[in-house]
Structure formats: C-alpha cells, structure tokens
C-alpha cells in the first residue's frame, strides 16, 4: 500500500514539475500565430536560463531539409575527433560529386583540391548542397545515424543515401527530425557536449556565421550572436536558432510541412511565420530592447534560393 502511495506521489511531483517548466503565456502566443497557418506547424522554444519551454507539436516528425547538415557536421567532427579524418586535410573534387543547384562548390573544377575545413564551412554557412553530399559520402549516413542514436536522438536521422530508409525518405526527404530534437542538438553544441568541447566550439563558430539571415535571424538585432541553420523544400520551411540574449540564451525551432504555399518568394507563408515567431520571441525575452528592423532593409537581404 505504501509503495502505491509513493508511486502516486512521484507521479504528482513529476507532473507538477513539468507544468512548472511550461511557459503557458508564451505557449498561448505561439498557438495564436500558428492557428491559421495553411499547413502543419511544429515549434519548440526553451529559455536556457530558466529552463521554461513552450511548444506546438514539438514531438511531431517533420522534414529537416537542409537542417540535416548539422547532423552531418556532428558525424564529421566525431570522425575527426577519433583521428579517422583530419580537419585540415585536402580533398580532391570529382565531377561526379557535383550537385547542380548553383552552389559555390559546384563551380570547382574536376581534380581541384580543397581543404576539408572549407567544405565543412560551405556546408553550414552557405548551405552548399554539393559540399554536404560530399561530406555525407565521406562520413556515411549510417555513421551519422549511429552517432545520433548513441547521443539520445530517437527521431532525427539522415534518410537520403542510407540503405533501409527509402520508405521514410519518400515521406520526409533528406532527413527527419522533431522541433524538440533540433533544439536539443543546438543546445548540446552550445554547451560543449556534442562530440567534445573543442569540436562543439568549432561547430558553434560555423553555425554563427550563416549567410542565410533573411528570416528568423533578421528579427534578432545584429549585435546579438546567433547560431542557426535553415532549410526548405517545396511544402516545408524550417529554421533553428540559438540566441545569446542579454537576459539569458534561448533556443527555438520552427518547422512546417504540407504547406499550401509552395512558392520560393520572401512572402511565402512559411517564411512569414518563421519571422513572426522569431520577432515574438525576441521581444518576449528582451522586452526592454527597443530594436526593430530598420526601414529599407529588404533591399539588402540575402533572399536567393538556398
């Protein structure tokens, strides 16, 4: 009888703790932004100082699109940490690696050499697909997925070019994840817990030099450091950001799917939602900061196709 009462008490305590960690006010605001969206929306936000979080479908599976490149980077760094690859080694480019989407690396000539470190930088900073597929081939999707599994990621996986994942690739594309797990990965990197403290620092530096800053990052003041990764395919838009804010770091991930609006214009409904959520979070966590994006900024945005 005592054991049953003890179990009930533990259950009540755990429920109360979970409730205390939920930011109900912010959750309500996020739901208000997402409720009229023409498609599926997933959002996870956590204040890393207080531990409080807010979520909308945070554990639902979504396409990663280019956000899977952060996982590829982790697998790459793990191999470097183990001495199987060298961050400064030269790689030889072959025409068979070329992925024709206007990437910088796609313009490299056959048999040209380039440092692995530069390929890794292009994969994250420019979201270069040729670089990303090259590094995935070098590390292998199976190795990356094994690293994810060993580090407590139940859902995030590389699907493309991985044997046995053809069916799930047909549903989610290159990679699959949840908003919560994207935030977990960014937090691990920020806290020096992904691969090693040194590898995490290198990854964080790459993630904080993103060229594609026209959506979520555009709603955060330029004097605030952000680490981020973006992704999109026809019916999905996504972005994960960790902001080093004055009142405490916060991390958030927004992913959409089954969008009715499949355009690639700046006013795509998914891009608008990402910007609106990011603006809400900045002013929610930093209410005394009076910064707003200056008039005329649109003409200077990086809005080319990713």
CATH-defined fold name: Beta-lactamase
Shape verdict: globular
Strand order of the largest sheet: 2-1-10-9-8
Mean pLDDT across all residues, rounded? Answer: 93
Provide the succession of SSEs.
HHEEEHEEHHHEHEHHEEEH
CATH architecture: 3-Layer(aba) Sandwich
CATH homologous superfamily annotation: DD-peptidase/beta-lactamase superfamily
Radius of gyration: 20 Å
- Spans of at least 5 consecutive residues whose pLDDT stays below 50 are 15-19
Specify the helix fraction band. Answer: 25-40%
What is the tally of helical segments? 10
Major sheet details = 5 strands, antiparallel
The helix/strand class is alpha+beta
CATH class reads Alpha Beta
Beta strands, count:
10
Count of domain modules: 1
Keywords, please?
alpha+beta, 10 helices, five-stranded antiparallel sheet, three-stranded antiparallel sheet, globular, 306 residues, 16% strand, Beta-lactamase, Beta-lactam_cat
In short:
This protein is of the alpha+beta class and 306 residues long. The protein has helices spanning 2-20, 24-34, 69-81, 116-125, 129-139, 141-150, 166-172, 179-190, 197-207, 269-285; strands at residues 40-47, 53-56, 62-63, 90-92, 113-115, 157-158, 175-177, 226-233, 236-243, 250-257.
Task: Please describe what this structure looks like.
The chain is of the alpha+beta class. It has a single domain, classed as DD-peptidase/beta-lactamase superfamily (Beta-lactamase, 3-Layer(aba) Sandwich), CATH 3.40.710. Helix content is 40%, strand content 16%. It has helices at residues 2-20, 24-34, 69-81, 116-125, 129-139, 141-150, 166-172, 179-190, 197-207, 269-285, and strands at residues 40-47, 53-56, 62-63, 90-92, 113-115, 157-158, 175-177, 226-233, 236-243, 250-257. The strands form three sheets. It has a five-stranded antiparallel sheet, sandwiched between helices. The protein has a three-stranded antiparallel sheet with strand order 3-7-6. Helix 3 packs across helix 5 (129-139) and helix 4 (116-125) crosses helix 5. The longest helix has 19 residues, at 2-20. The chain is globular, with a radius of gyration of 20 Å. The model is unreliable at 15-19 (pLDDT under 50). Keywords: Signal. This is beta-lactamase.
């Amino acid at each position: 009888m005592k054991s049953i009462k003890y179990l009930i008490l533990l259950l009540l305590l755990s429920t109360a703790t979970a409730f205390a960690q939920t930011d109900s006010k912010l959750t309500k605001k996020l739901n208000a932004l997402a409720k009229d969206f023409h498609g599926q929306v997933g959002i996870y936000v956590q204040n890393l100082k207080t531990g409080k979080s807010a979520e909308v479908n945070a554990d639902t599976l979504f396409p990663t699109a280019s956000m899977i490149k952060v996982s590829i980077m982790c697998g790459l760094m793990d191999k470097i940490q183990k001495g199987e690859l060298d961050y400064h080694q030269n790689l030889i480019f072959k025409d068979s690696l070329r992925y024709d989407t206007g990437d910088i690396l796609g313009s490299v000539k056959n048999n040209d050499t380039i440092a692995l470190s530069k390929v890794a930088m292009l994969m994250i900073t420019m979201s270069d697909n040729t670089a990303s597929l090259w590094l995935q081939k070098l590390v292998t999707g199976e190795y990356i997925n094994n690293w994810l599994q060993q580090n407590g990621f139940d859902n995030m996986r590389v699907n493309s070019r991985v044997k046995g994942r053809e069916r799930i690739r047909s549903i989610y594309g290159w990679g699959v994840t949840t908003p919560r797990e994207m935030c977990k990965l960014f937090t691990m990197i920020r806290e020096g817990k992904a691969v090693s403290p040194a590898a995490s620092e290198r990854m964080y530096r790459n993630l904080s030099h993103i060229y594609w800053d026209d959506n979520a990052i555009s709603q955060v003041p330029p004097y605030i450091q952000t680490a981020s990764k973006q992704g999109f395919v026809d019916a999905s838009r996504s972005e994960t950001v960790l902001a080093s804010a004055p009142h405490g770091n916060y991390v958030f991930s927004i992913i959409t799917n089954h969008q009715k609006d499949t355009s690639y214009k700046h006013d795509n409904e998914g891009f608008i939602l990402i910007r609106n959520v990011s603006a809400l979070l900045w002013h929610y966590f930093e209410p005394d900061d009076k910064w707003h994006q200056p008039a005329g900024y649109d003409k200077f945005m990086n809005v080319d196709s990713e």
